[in-house]
Amino acid sequence: MVHDFHDAPAWAKVFDDPARDAWQRPAEVVGLLDLRPGMTVVDLGAGTGYFEPHLAHVVGEHGHVLALDVAADMVNYLKDRAAREGLGNVEAKHVAPDDPGLGADTVDRILIVDTWHHLPDRPAYARKLAAALVVGGTVTIVDFTAESKMGPPVHARVPPDQAVAELEAAGLEAKVIAETLPEQYIVVGRRRP
Fold it and tell me: Are 78 and 66 in contact (CB under 8 A)?
């Protein structure tokens, strides 16, 4: 699903609306990542940086948050936001739609919120993500359920069992996990030892 995200300040009013906390539940999502200080975590499709303060706080000053997005305007906004909010461990990077640009065995956690349905070749992309993970590292997909009152058109949504299959095809051990998000599901894929 292709979408135009060129006007970051306008999108910030949507993505960073305080009302989002009620349905996105960022503390719960970040808690489910099992982050620890010093880890490297990727926020893929980071948008305006909604999750960055949460992630940056948990991984701490010795950790690293890679905020990746395909929209250059979003990346510029993210860089300004990180500087403005003193998030020195956040690095915003522009990436290609078909490649996250991550080195092999370099990432502890990858968070993908409301973005999995945008990727054109998810199985190929999943293989690149799997290669970037350290042993025991995880990819966490948070996306809209078929019943959700928000999100992309129903025909563009990716069911959780399909997300599981796409991560498993990349060699990850994947499953739907329990959560309390009212509009979304969470799938986690873990790199096996």
Answer: no
